Amino acid sequence: MGKGGNSSGVQxxxxxxNMAAWLVGVNTLLLKPLTLPQLGPNDVKIRIKAxxxxxxxxxxxxxxxxxxxxxxxxxxxxxxCAGIVEEVGxxxxxLVPGDRVxxxxxxxxxxxxxxxEGRYNICPDSKNLASPPIHGCLANxxxxxxxxCFKLPxxxxxxxxxVCEPLSVGVYGCRRANIGPHTKVLVMGAGPIGLVTMLAxxxxxxxxxxxxxVNADRLAAAKKLGATEVVLxxxxxxxxxxxxxLIKKAMGDDIDVSFDCAGFTKTMxxxxxxxxxxxRVCQMGMGxxxxxxxxxxxxxxxxxxxxxxxxxxxTYPLCFExxxxxxIDVKPLITHRFGFxxxxxxxxxxxxxxxxxxxxxxxxx
Length: 365
Hints:
Elements: E1 19-25, E2 28-33, E3 43-52, H1 55-63, E4 65-66, E5 69-70, E6 75-76, E7 80-88, E8 100-103, E9 106-107, H2 113-116, E10 127-128, E11 141-145, E12 149-151, H3 158-176, E13 184-188, H4 192-203, E14 208-213, H5 216-225, E15 229-232, H6 240-251, E16 257-260, H7 265-274, E17 280-283, H8 295-301, E18 305-308, H9 316-324, E19 334-338, H10 342-353, E20 360-364
Parallel strand pairs: 13-14, 13-16, 14-15, 16-17, 17-18, 19-20
Antiparallel strand pairs: 1-2, 1-6, 3-7, 3-11, 3-20, 4-5, 7-8, 8-12, 9-10
Helix pairs in contact: 3-4, 3-9, 6-7
InterPro entries: ADH-like_C, ADH-like_N, ADH_Zn_CS, ER, GroES-like_sf, NAD(P)-bd_dom_sf, SDH-like
Domain Enoyl reductase (ER): 25-363
Keywords: Metal-binding, NAD, Oxidoreductase, Zinc
């Protein structure tokens, strides 16, 4: 079964030069050929047409690592993608050449207890595109399991298909938090994941959504995309108490569910403090490995449920439905587009890393 290849070198036959963006050092990406693995019976070969840049991609570029993942040898980057099927394995019955597909990047083992329980997103042996040592998808061609390639409805563009990867995080978070017309929602962090979480919460029926961030440009984008209210905060812990009051005032009611889409001590502490007794906080961001947070007061005294959100599962068909139905419009998230040359790859990552008004930077291959 194809799993995106690994950075130790994959044997296989190459019919054409397959160029890919290789992370070779800190702040250094090089376009070089990538040898594809042999097409397995349950795999498909995909010509990649759209790839979005994720914050983790930028983090890998800047530091050669994210959390427990360290880039120890050159690796192809990218995991948000969509493309066109060029070839199918002998046992594939769900797809044919020419189908446009969105690619779910995580490949679970399908054998462990977590997978058997249906929670394949927390499979300990999962192989994920652009998680070292597995190669990513910023390439002309990749090989991937057919079961993790979802045929796009005719009305969806390939760019929208690629955005279904980050959107899946927000959709899964809203499922985990049981978001509905009964829940008032706070989102800490107005980056791409915070924005898709807000869009998903609105589509799930949340009547009021307040977003907080340190960046005024991001908050302006959040307001334009549908946030009920926005609150500009700082990264200083001494401002927490005042900011919690501002957030509660902006909500105008109890905060039922908070999503921490940044993952810092300050953002998580704010979420735990602002959420009502008996409410829920979902941890989604990974800004810091270790947090110092007021867990005793929130969890032990006020029974605030703390929920983890790791990647997603069974989300792509729902993402398609939410977009095709008009409940979510992801097109405004795509603020910058680039081609696939060395110069444009460098410029695209520079643009994404700069923050500001850049939300989702997209490659068109």
